[in-house]
Design goal:
Elements lengths: L1 H16 L7 H19 L19 H11 L5 E5 L11 E5 H21 L2 H37 L1
């Protein structure tokens, strides 16, 4: 699982670490979508042994730099409408503004920390953090971004 996890993480984080990737738009979106689904799928196979070791803390927070690179690599990404509570469809004020650039940036930041923990602390620490951050943060960004990609593809098909 470790090699596969690192490979998928690398597939996604390159969109935030490199400023001008040269990838066909359709291939780029397909690669991103497939990688997001793969990382989501790996979450269900997390298996680690918790330990009480005092590991180094991850201190790199590069939101602005990574967001700028994501903007360069996905200039067609934008905002979208999102419901706070999809089960509360009667509430007319149930919508918020989502941002595909922010979603991908946050996903990349989470994955960078998972990778760093695996490489600098231990596999167990990285997998523990993967489970923790995925449940509380990454999962929703992935769901929102996949939905955005789906809706955008549907809209593009209708306009073609």
């Amino acid at each position: 699982m470790t090699i596969q996890l690192i490979h998928i993480i690398n597939q996604i984080i390159k969109f935030g670490l490199e400023s001008n990737l040269i990838i066909n738009k359709n291939k780029r979106d397909l690669l991103l979508e497939k990688s997001l689904i793969n990382i989501y799928s790996l979450y269900f196979d997390i298996n680690y042994e918790f330990d009480d070791a005092k590991y180094k803390e991850y201190n790199e927070y590069r939101y602005a730099e990574i967001r700028k690179n994501v903007e360069h690599n996905f200039p067609d990404f934008g905002f979208y409408a999102n419901a706070f509570d999809i089960l509360n469809f009667e509430n007319k004020d149930n919508f918020e503004l989502g941002d595909a650039i922010d979603d991908l940036t946050d996903i990349i930041l989470d994955l960078l920390q998972i990778k760093w923990r695996i490489e600098n602390n231990s596999l167990n620490d990285g997998l523990w953090y993967f489970q923790l951050i995925f449940q509380d943060h990454t999962q929703q960004h992935i769901i929102d971004l996949l939905n955005y990609l789906k809706q955008r593809n549907k809209t593009n098909l209708l306009l073609s």
